[in-house]
Amino acid sequence: KAGVTQTPRYLIKTRGQQVTLSCSPISGHRSVSWYQQTPGQGLQFLFEYFSETQRNKGNFPGRFSGRQFSNSRSEMNVSTLELGDSALYLCASSPLPGELFFGEGSRLTVL
Amino acid sequence: GQQVMQIPQYQHVQEGEDFTTYCNSSTTLSNIQWYKQRPGGHPVFLIQLVKSGEVKKQKRLTFQFGEAKKNSSLHITATQTTDVGTYFCAGRNNDMRFGAGTRLTVKP
Fold it and tell me: Which residues of B2-37 are buried (b: 16+ CB within 10 A; e: fewer)?
């Protein structure tokens, strides 16, 4: 069974640009959640989606948005990038309720 | 909002010594999960605890869930170099919130 796939793995953007990250969950998993990981802050919860509906949202500004498609694939978008947005963005899928299966992450660097 | 505090932030041990990391939630949790992240890797699920006072063991690892379902601990007996990594607890209330993690290093 294929794992969680995140693309792109690495990307470099400049301040003010926007970025879209993609996540393909494990087949059959309908729940997808996103986390931001930075050395000082650990894993910060961004959003959780289930069957195309956002179930929960973390404490991030409106520049961070996401969506889930009918095939359970998910995307997150960050607009007007700031230097502080540099982080590893992790996507996890889950057969609710249960464990989270993480992808390798998308490492974003904002210059 | 829900917060999960985890201590210590770092722990350096000699191989063979024991290791413990603790998590505390500001709210009652429906369950708590533990994950391990090796350097350069992604978090990998270790275990889930659901019941009040639950204790589970995986070889040298012992996981506990508090009676009030607001705290948890992970204890590793006789650490090995393969135990190196960051251990995260994650508590579920409405959503899954992670502790800041405890980074374990083991000196051979």
Answer: bebebeeeebeeeeeeebebbbbbeeebebbbbbbb
Which residues are CB-contacts of B82 (< 8 A; sequence separation ≥ 6)? none
Distance CA B8, CA B16 (A): 19
Q: Do A45 and B95 touch (CB under 8 A)?
A: yes
Decide: helix, strand or coil at residue B81.
Answer: helix
Helix, strand, coil percent content, chain B, rounded in steps of 5: 5, 55, 40
Contact A97, A39 (CB under 8 A): no
Distance CA B32, CA B64 (A): 10
**Gap from A79 CA to chain B (nearest CA, Å):** 24
- Do residue B44 and residue A102 have CB atoms under 8 angstroms apart? yes
Q: Tell me the β-bridge partners of A107.
A: A10, A88
Looking at the DSSP assignment, which residues form a beta bridge with residue A36? A44, A89
Could you state, in chain order, the average pLDDT of each consecutive group of 10 residues for chain B (108 residues)?
87 97 95 95 95 97 97 98 96 88 96
User: How far is A102 from A100, CA to CA, in rounded Å?
Assistant: 6
User: By three-state DSSP, how is residue B83 classified?
Assistant: helix
Given a contact cutoff of 8 angstroms between Cβ atoms, the answer to whether B29 and B69 are in contact is yes
Q: CA-based diameter of chain B, in Å?
A: 41
Span A53-66, pLDDT tens digits? 999 899 999 999 99
